[in-house]
Structure formats: structure tokens, C-alpha cells
Design brief:
Layout lengths: L1 H26 L17 H24 L1 H26 L5 H23 L7 H10 L13 H22 L4 H24 L15 H8 L30 H6 L1 H4 L22 H5 L29 E5 L2 E5 L7 E3 L7 E5 L2 E11 L1 E5 L2 E10 L2 E5 L2 E7 L5 E5 L2 E6 L8 E5 L2 E9 L2 E6 L4 E5 L4 E5 L5
Parallel strand pairs: 2-4, 3-5, 4-6, 5-7, 6-8, 7-9, 8-10, 9-11, 10-12, 11-13
Antiparallel strand pairs: 1-2, 13-14, 15-16
Helix pairs in contact: 2-3, 2-7, 3-4, 3-8, 4-5, 5-6, 6-7
């Protein structure tokens, strides 16, 4: 009898211990939360630091965006969701070991989806009165891709911050002396990226730090983190990620930074990116077999079902938009023109501006005097104009030719490959400002013809004992 009583006591003791273990497992949601980087039941220090950034500069940006309302407020909410998606990834990294590269790319897709959503909102609201605000956010939000950058993600964020500054300067120019709310908005937004750079420098100088213990990260563990209370103490937990988005890589090169950066996490797989591709033999390559081209586009492989055929270069988003050439208020809109070499704008006024967007293999002549001209996301485009009193800007474009018939004080070239500018005798004092561009040439009239002068693309900087001195690294003749 005594032996049976002792057996019961031992059984009850085992049950109590088992219930205790199950209770602890339930609290941790299946994750080893009591051993997060050696901190008992707490978030990792770098997650706590990221929360301070969310509650500080990001929260301030949301407040100022709410004051401005409209498209800016809507855009800011998308930014908040993107930062929450990044926070979830950081929590995962703090609790789990780093998985294989292809698995990391899958885990990064929710962030990439948020980035794409932010950029698509800007593209679909080009007529917004606050388009410069939307552009500043859209051009710089890829900075959240720093988690896929190594060994030094900080400079990548700095580069994206510079892209924002290009547009925030326009906002300041428009509102600096009329509405301080927009000035506060600019300061709050740029402060996010400044603080993110400081955060990276302190916690992830050489790249994201994964946990050395715990399970290997997976989609299942990500969902577990998102649905677990004690392991995720964010005041506003983000929803679980939906199915992986399908990214359209068709316009990755044509559209410049926005498309490229939205896919940053996927493209950063290194050699693993080619694992899903099937081998194509010579007899299957359309450029070596004209008979295949005659049969129409080949059936895409399952791994690249969203990629266009090499034989259909014109199957771009331009076909879904009607060409535009109209005066809207004070703005001349020239958009989605294809193979048009007889475009002309007349009856211009000094207060008017021209905005040229996604025009391909076309030429435009602007007669008279106009305030400013912007060429954005164009390819093989020619512009001839008489006089501009402000600035001519070329952004995110390729193979552009500009001929000045009269005067222009400044021409700006940004993120452009191939730009030839023909100056007139009257415009020889024009200032050419360039950044992140290549194959730029200025043609000067001499003896009834033009002489070509390349714009330096490479520079050399040295310390002379008191200051930095920068000069072209090549001789320009």
C-alpha cells in the first residue's frame, strides 16, 4: 500500500512539472522567448532601440502628416505599415538563427510589398497638389531594404535619404515662406532616415545581426511571432503577412530607382538568385532562331511567368495609358507619347511649366518663353525649346537630347544615362548640375558647327591640409 502511495505521489509530481512546462511553452508561443540573446523574457536591445525610433521620429512624422491631411496622410499610414513590417522582421532575427538565402528573400517579401505599395500610390497620384511630398517618400522608402545589405548598410540609407532631399527641397521652396506646417513635415521625415542611420551604426554596422540560438527562421516562425503577445510588445502589432506578392520586373530597368528598389530584397540573394532558373539551349533562344520569333512569344517558364518575352519589348505599361498633351492650369502635361516626332507646344506664358513623363522615341518643340521644364522617366527623347527662365530638369531618363535655341540659366541632370545638350550662343553661361548620371555631353557652337565636351563622371578628392579639394579624375578636352 505504501509503495502504491509513493508511486501516485511521483506521478502527481511529474504531472505538475509537465503542466508547468506546457504553460511556459504556451506563453512563449512556441518560441524560446526566455533566451532571447541572453535577456530573460525581454526583447533584444536592437529591437528596443528600433521601438524608440518608431515612437520618436516615425510617430512625429505621422503627426505632421495627419495635420497636412489628404494624400500625405494616406501615404504616411503606408509608411507606418512598412516600418511595422520591418520591426516584425527584426524581432524574428533577434529570436531565430539566419536561414538559407532563398528563405530570407521570402521573409523579406512583406517589406518589399509595403515599399511597392508606397511607390504605386505616388505613381497613381501624379496630379496631386502634394506630388513632391509623395515623391520624397516614394524615392527614399527603399531605405528599409538596408536589412538585406552587407557589410555596410548605413551608406545605403544615406543614398536613399539624398533621393528624398531632391524633392523635399522643392517642398521647402514652395512653402518655406507661406506654410510652416510643410517645413515641419520635411524636417520630421528627413529625421527618420538620420536616426535610422544612427541606429544602424550602433546596432548593425556590418549588417543585420541574427540570433546565434533558437530555431532557424521560417515563415512559420514569423507568423508565430506576429501572433504572440509576450514576444512582441509593440503598441500596434502589424497583421500577419499575406501570401507572397508577385513582383512585376518588366519595367525594372526602364523605371529606374522606384522599380529597382522595390525588389531590392529579392535581388540581394547573390548566387542563389539563379537557382530557380531553367537552362535554355541554343535552339530555344529566339535571338538565334528567327523562326521562333515568327511564331510569337514563347511560353514563359513557371519560375518567370511574370517576365516579358525578349521578343516583345513594347509590352510596357505605356500601352495601358492614353497619350497626353494638354495644358492643365499652369502645367503643360506631355505623357506616354510613343514614336511621335511632331509634338509642338505654342502660345506659352512665363508662368507656365512643362512636365514630360514616360515619353519614348519622341521629339517635342516648345516655342516661346516658359518657366521650367521637367523630363521624367523618358527614353530616346528629344527636346527643343526657345527660352526657359528657371530650370530644365532631366530625371530617371535615358538617351535624352536637348537643344537650346535661346537662353536657360540652369540644366539639372539626375539619375540619367546618356544626355546630350546643344547650347546656343546666348546660353553659354548656363550652369550644368549633374548627379548619379553618366554619358553626359555638352555641345558648344563653334564656327557654324558644334564641338562636344564630356561632363566628368569621376572625381578625385584629396586633403590639402585645411580642406577637401575635389577635381575631375580625368582630363576633359
Amino acid at each position: 500500500m505504501a509503495e502504491s502511495h509513493g508511486l501516485v505521489e511521483r506521478l502527481e509530481s511529474a504531472v505538475i512539472r509537465l503542466e508547468s512546462l506546457l504553460s511556459g511553452s504556451h506563453r512563449s508561443g512556441g518560441m524560446e522567448c526566455d533566451a532571447i540573446n541572453g535577456v530573460n523574457g525581454r526583447l533584444a536591445p536592437y529591437v528596443e532601440a528600433f521601438d524608440r525610433l518608431l515612437n520618436g521620429s516615425v510617430a512625429a512624422f505621422l503627426r505632421y502628416s495627419k495635420i497636412l491631411e489628404g494624400d500625405v496622410k494616406t501615404h504616411a499610414e503606408m509608411v507606418r505599415a512598412a516600418f511595422q513590417a520591418q520591426r516584425s522582421f527584426l524581432v524574428l532575427a533577434s529570436q531565430c538563427q539566419e536561414p538559407q538565402e532563398n528563405e530570407v528573400a521570402m521573409l523579406l517579401k512583406p517589406i518589399s510589398e509595403k515599399i511597392q505599395e508606397i511607390q504605386n500610390f505616388r505613381e497613381s497620384n501624379r496630379g496631386s497638389k502634394m506630388f513632391n511630398h509623395l515623391s520624397a517618400v516614394s524615392e527614399s522608402i527603399p531605405a528599409l531594404g538596408w536589412i538585406a545589405v552587407s557589410p555596410k548598410p548605413g551608406p545605403y540609407v544615406k543614398e536613399m535619404n539624398d533621393a528624398a532631399t531632391f524633392y523635399t527641397n522643392r517642398v521647402l521652396k514652395d512653402y518655406k515662406h507661406s506654410d510652416e506646417r510643410h517645413v515641419d513635415w520635411v524636417k520630421s521625415y528627413l529625421n527618420i532616415w538620420s536616426e535610422l542611420q544612427a541606429y544602424i551604426k550602433e546596432h548593425h554596422t556590418t549588417g543585420l545581426t541574427w540570433s546565434k540560438t533558437g530555431p532557424v527562421a521560417s515563415l512559420m516562425s514569423m507568423r508565430s511571432i506576429l501572433t504572440t503577445g509576450p514576444c512582441l510588445s509593440s503598441p500596434t502589432p502589424p497583421p500577419p503577412p499575406g501570401p507572397p506578392p508577385i513582383f512585376d520586373t518588366e519595367t525594372t530597368k526602364d523605371e529606374g530607382t522606384p522599380s529597382r528598389s522595390a525588389l531590392f530584397a529579392q535581388l540581394n540573394q547573390g548566387e542563389a538568385i539563379t537557382k530557380g532558373l531553367r537552362h535554355v539551349s541554343d535552339d530555344q533562344k529566339t535571338y538565334k532562331n528567327p523562326s521562333l520569333r515568327a511564331q510569337g512569344p514563347p511560353v514563359p517558364s513557371p519560375t518567370k511567368s511574370h517576365t516579358p518575352s525578349p521578343t516583345s519589348p513594347k509590352s510596357s505599361p505605356q500601352q495601358s495609358h492614353a497619350p497626353v498633351l494638354e495644358l492643365e492650369g499652369k502645367k503643360w502635361r506631355v505623357e506616354y507619347q510613343e514614336d511621335k516626332n511632331d509634338l509642338v507646344i505654342t502660345n506659352t506664358e512665363l508662368k507656365q511649366v512643362a512636365y514630360i513623363f514616360k515619353c519614348n522615341k519622341s521629339t517635342l518643340q516648345i516655342k516661346g518663353k516658359i518657366n521650367s521644364i521637367t523630363i521624367d522617366n523618358c527614353k530616346k527623347f528629344g527636346l527643343v525649346f526657345d527660352n526657359v527662365v528657371g530650370i530644365v530638369e532631366v530625371i530617371n531618363s535615358r538617351d535624352i537630347q536637348i537643344q537650346v535655341m535661346g537662353k536657360v540659366p540652369t540644366i539639372s541632370i539626375n539619375k540619367t544615362e546618356g544626355c546630350h545638350i546643344y547650347l546656343s550662343e546666348e546660353s553659354l553661361d548656363c550652369a550644368i548640375v549633374s548627379a548619379k548620371s553618366s554619358e553626359m555631353n555638352i555641345l558648344i557652337p563653334q564656327d557654324g558647327d558644334y564641338k562636344e565636351f564630356p561632363v566628368p563622371e569621376q572625381f578625385k578628392t584629396a586633403w590639402d591640409g585645411s580642406k577637401l579639394v575635389t577635381e575631375p579624375a580625368e582630363i576633359v578636352g
